[in-house]
């Protein structure tokens, strides 16, 4: 059905995809794996006709059922692609929150797919196909039919209470629900090809399993082909019949999934396999610290955290919603305490309370260190894109000096401290004057870690610090965090949905469910003999 023949794609003369050849038949699931920058997404976007206008196809061509969609030396035929996009081939993107329109209800956005491909849709300069419908006065018949089809699509992807979802905005849905909406949008016209670009990266392990099971079910029921792009080799192994391994824009290995996992031919493929965190491997990064009678860095006792319920009325009495209830624990010097649980269980709310970002609390937080710092999941959105790396590393020092004059530093001292931290996180002086956009994902995360550590806090809250990184960069960041922990005697509160990462990184693990801490224990003991049924389900699902 799909043939990509000797495809090369260049940006500003630099080739990022080099002589890639892939093919898919009806019903097949082909996985494409590799590190960030290996050319996975550019290959998929070129296939879909979504790669930017600045991209040049320097060689090869893309075919769908022997119809040439793109070819080197020829401009992209947008009219041809419009007949295929959505109807014959569709795409699920990595982050639905940035792919869905935040100002439109999700039901209307999915319904728009039907109007755009309707045979006799109204013509006009409307922003949305449904606007054209309203302006034309065609409000009956087809409109109700399309609404029904959207509700059926929501039900098919496991969204219950379809009417509520239809009327919701993206921010009113959980991450897993938003991803299901994206899948419904991609599949509502029953395309023969589905391209899934990192569709489960930001999801916790149970929701991730649900999405994978859903994709497998759809593939089996509709017999559509799927191009599954991921840096998670375990996911690719569970879903894909064949795997293509990409490196530096080239396919370096291609074959049956189990054959590649059991007998990888290329050294690069072997390194990818070895970098995957697993409970089957010896724990490499855990500090090996056992809590003793030393003074804890942070002690939390009977902590409850609240949020105000939103209200559209200025006069309505706002009620408090308890999102964390009666949490008690300690974190000790040099220890890594893992915090796991499903999305919405209260992990981030608990961390915000410890950091002082939410003061609507009841209970006690005793901190025996200077203000804790945080490493965020996505450094691209948490680093100021207009500032240089040197400026960003000095900002926490400026803020500390503004809060406490005794900690104020001269400009020369701040610059020296920034250079020192740049070296500590494994980066060279040349990056000091660069901006975040000029760095790779792993380099940006190193800068984010440097920002958190430059004021020498005793506690660092790491909220999903490696989930957006490919496996080899993930291993480098985990090794960096372990080394800095030993050098600076840090304590970590390590939040992650990846159970295998937590197993490798943490000395103790704390399990949260629906705002409550239900189990705390040393890593090996908790994995070997969990007390709670929920913990057993969480471990088995990974």
**Roughly what is the average pLDDT, rounded to an integer?**
85
Major sheet characteristics: 6 strands, mixed
Q: Poorly predicted ranges (pLDDT <50, ≥5 residues)? A: 120-138
Helix count, DSSP H or I runs of 4 or more residues: 21
* SS-based class: alpha/beta
Largest sheet strand order:
6-7-8-3-9-10
Helix content: 25-40%
| Molecular shape | globular
Strand percentage: 15-25%
Span from first to last CA? 34 Å
C-alpha Rg (nearest Å): 25 Å
Oligomer: single chain
Total strands = 19
Architecture blueprint of SSEs:
Blueprint (H helix, E strand, L loop, with lengths): L1 E10 L2 E11 L4 E6 L5 H9 L6 E10 L2 E5 L6 H7 L4 E4 L3 H4 L6 H11 L12 H8 L5 H15 L5 H5 L8 H13 L5 E5 L7 H18 L2 E6 L2 H7 L2 E6 L2 E7 H6 L4 H9 L22 E11 L11 E12 L4 E5 L6 H9 L5 E7 L5 E3 L3 H4 L6 H15 L7 H14 L16 H13 L5 E5 L7 H18 L2 E5 L3 H7 L2 E6 L2 E7 H6 L4 H9 L1
Parallel strand pairs: 3-8, 3-9, 6-7, 7-8, 13-17, 13-18, 15-16, 16-17
Antiparallel strand pairs: 1-2, 1-4, 4-5, 9-10, 11-12, 11-14, 18-19
Helix pairs in contact: 4-6, 4-8, 6-8, 15-16, 15-17, 16-17, 17-18
């Amino acid at each position: 059905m799909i043939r990509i023949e000797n495809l090369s794609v260049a940006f500003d003369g630099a080739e990022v995809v080099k002589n890639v050849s892939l093919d898919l038949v009806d019903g097949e699931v082909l996985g494409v794996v590799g590190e960030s920058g290996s050319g996975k997404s550019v290959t998929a976007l070129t296939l879909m006709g979504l790669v930017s206008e600045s991209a040049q196809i320097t060689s090869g061509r893309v075919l769908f059922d022997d119809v040439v969609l793109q070819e080197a030396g020829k401009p992209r035929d947008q009219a041809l692609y419009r007949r295929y996009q959505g109807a014959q081939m569709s795409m699920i993107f990595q982050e639905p929150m940035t792919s869905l329109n935040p100002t439109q209800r999700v039901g209307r956005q999915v319904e728009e797919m039907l109007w755009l491909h309707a045979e006799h849709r109204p013509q006009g300069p409307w922003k949305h196909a449904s606007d054209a419908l309203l302006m034309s006065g065609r409000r009956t018949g087809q409109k109700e039919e399309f609404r029904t089809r959207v509700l059926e699509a929501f039900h098919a992807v496991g969204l219950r209470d379809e009417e509520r979802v239809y009327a919701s905005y993206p921010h009113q849905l959980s991450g897993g629900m938003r991803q299901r909406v994206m899948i419904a949008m991609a599949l509502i016209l029953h395309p023969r090809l589905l391209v899934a670009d990192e569709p489960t990266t930001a999801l916790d392990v149970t929701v991730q399993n649900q999405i994978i099971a859903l994709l497998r079910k759809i593939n089996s029921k509709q017999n559509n082909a799927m191009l599954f792009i991921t840096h998670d080799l375990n996911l690719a192994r569970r879903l894909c019949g064949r795997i293509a391994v990409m490196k530096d824009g080239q396919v370096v290995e291609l074959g049956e999934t189990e054959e590649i996992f059991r007998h990888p031919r290329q050294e690069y493929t072997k390194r990818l396999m070895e970098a995957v965190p697993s409970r089957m491997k010896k724990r490499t990064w855990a500090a090996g610290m056992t809590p003793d009678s030393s003074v804890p860095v942070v002690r939390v006792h009977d902590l409850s955290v609240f949020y105000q319920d939103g209200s559209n009325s200025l006069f309505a009495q706002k009620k408090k919603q308890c999102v964390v209830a009666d949490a008690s624990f300690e974190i000790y010097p040099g220890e890594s305490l893992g915090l796991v649980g499903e999305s919405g269980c209260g992990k981030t709310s608990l961390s915000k309370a410890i950091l002082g970002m939410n003061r609507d609390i009841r209970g006690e937080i005793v901190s025996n260190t200077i203000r804790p710092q945080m490493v965020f999941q996505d450094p691209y959105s948490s680093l100021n894109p207009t500032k240089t790396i040197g400026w960003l590393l000095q900002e926490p020092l400026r803020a500390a000096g503004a809060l406490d004059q005794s900690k104020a530093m001269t400009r020369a001292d701040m610059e020296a401290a920034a250079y020192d931290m740049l070296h500590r996180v494994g980066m060279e002086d040349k990056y000091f004057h660069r901006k975040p956009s000029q760095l790779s994902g792993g380099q940006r995360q190193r800068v984010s870690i440097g920002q958190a550590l430059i004021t020498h806090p005793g506690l660092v809250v790491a909220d999903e610090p490696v989930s957006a990184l490919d496996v080899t960069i993930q291993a480098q960041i985990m090794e960096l965090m372990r080394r800095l922990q030993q050098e600076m005697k840090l304590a970590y509160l390590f939040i992650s949905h990846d159970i295998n990462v937590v197993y490798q990184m943490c000395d103790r693990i704390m399990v949260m469910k629906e705002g409550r801490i239900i189990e705390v224990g040393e890593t090996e003991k908790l994995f070997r003999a969990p007390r709670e049924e929920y913990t057993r389900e969480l471990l088995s699902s990974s």
